[in-house]
Protein: Glutamine-dependent NAD(+) synthetase
Amino acid sequence: MTAQLTITLAQMTQAVGDLRGNADAMIAVYQSKPDSDLVVFPELQLIGYPPEDLVLKPAVVERAETELQRLAGATTGSAPAMLVGSIFRENGNLYNGIALLEGGQIKDVRYKVELPNYGTFDEKRLFASGPMPDPIDFRGCKIGLPICEDVWFPTVCKHLKAQGTEMLISVHGSPYEIEKDDRRLGQVATQRVRETALPLLFLNRIGGQDEVVFDGASFVLNGDTSVMHQLPDWDEAVVDTHWSKGADGWTCAPGEIHKLDDHPADIYNAMIVGLRDYVNANRFPGVILGLSGGIDSALSAAVAVDALGADRVWCVMMPSRFTSQESLDDAAGCAEMLGTRLDTISIVPAVEGFDAMLEGSFADEEVDITEENIQSRIRGVTLMAMSNKFGHMLLTTGNKSEMSVGYATIYGDMAGGYSVLKDAYKLTCFKLSEWRNRNKPSLGMGPDGPVMPETVITKPPTAELREDQKDSDSLPEYDILDPLLHGLIEEELSVSDLVERGFDRETVIRIEKLLYIAEYKRRQAPPGVKLGTRNFGRDRRYPITNAFRTI
Structure:
């Protein structure tokens, strides 16, 4: 009986749909570890995660079968074995599973039992639930393979323990959310280990996929819940874990313990990864954005430079007759501090042209928000024209507070390809800007020092679409609005619930109404990085036509 095992954890990125590329990357890692016994890859690593309806395409299933056989072929002779996550077709059903590849063949397969169907996940739409799994026999060790959600509930691990399992290896596609590190380790994995007294290897992936980002942060627990390995967040890592069997079962020798990001560095790095991987995977040469002199565009530009480098970020200041000299100076200051190109294109001639064009139709009407929105749409058209001409993706700069209440112009400042602030409330934007001016993120390609003038952070927010305009003219102060929105969105609270918390009743009623009637705008907004538990898009799916109110 084998008393020693070396198990390699491959915390990797992926490319959804690039089955050959993903397989090639796994083979490269595998071949670099000839002395390992078992090389483990994340959930659905062969096809990428989340695959959404891509897996319903028969050609994808066929390609997955072909590439899995190719991976198995790499394990001939006395070479290490592999655990590879993929999709599997059996008796007309499609399963999310994991295969043990050894000796040139697919030796064992286990299917996921608990299929998440909330928030970003819709696996019940795609997969059948597998039967309760037995452990696999691997070189003298009975290994249980709970897949992702299987370890977030006690049933599967309890069953595996009853079947004689000696070690748990749980592969994941666990997206980043604020404070999720603590939930994975402290509330989930540690609890399963306490219940089963079995050691647990928890393997996650890294990288961005559309709106979700994966932070890695994989780890290994011994049966007494002690942490033996903590892999880094945000970076790929291929780590050997060394195991020995004694009277009390299998234990892992101590390894490196990486310190994970504190708050808000984790949010900032999530934004970097989401934008970087979206731009690069979709082969854009860089990004272009409107730099207004305000905090949201300044923060968006900073994240873009940290993600892509200053030479791939193109800023454009588009002043109108309402633009202050302070905004012009602050935009110029941001661009200089970040080292980006800054073009200035006045929208005054276009505004005058629209005024003349619409003069007859608007002759008997008062000037109102329509004229404000025309300015925003002119800026949107200008930026999209430059994107169209030069190929740079347009980065939008609106935050979650604005998107919640519709304080954004559809086909104007909402136009674009991606948003790093889509799930960041205004107060979070202030916090991130203050943090970035004092710190350089671990993944950052930008400058070591401050990235925006202090006046960008301290001045009252304004859209500058009319004389002396401030956000507070239309909205409550953000220290009131943001907690109120968090209650309505993340907590799904009613007007009465929020009034009990001390919010003004009429204010809550007004904001709830604005939240619901802005749904049609959000449905047409670009994707953006998911940060919290209820982002607009994958997490919170409300009907556009909706007459319900909580009063």
User: Anything to note?
Assistant: The first strand starts at residue 4 and ends at 11. The mean pLDDT is 95.
